[in-house]
Write a structure and sequence with these properties.
Keywords: Plasmid
Number of helices: 3
Number of strands: 2
Radius of gyration: 14 Å
Distance between the termini: 24 Å
Helix content: 55-70%
Largest sheet: 2 strands, antiparallel
Strand content: 15-25%
Length: about 60
């Protein structure tokens, strides 16, 4: 899943597999896809900020 910022909104492109997974998650949580994706992005950011996930810069080899 790729996310690019555009005018305070995010344009998200997902693969067919990710779309199927999103559909299942939406059915399980009874949430709209946009709400669920927004929560996932916020959760991922919090995990990066708190150090539970390695930052993107640490993965890039120079």
């Amino acid at each position: 899943m790729t996310v690019s910022k555009d005018n305070q909104r995010y344009q998200i492109t997902i693969t067919p597999e990710e779309k199927a997974q999103l559909r299942v998650l939406c059915q399980a949580t009874k949430e709209r896809p946009s709400t669920l994706i927004r929560r996932l992005i916020c959760t991922e950011k919090r995990l990066y900020d708190s150090g539970f996930l390695p930052s993107y810069n640490s993965k890039v080899k120079k």
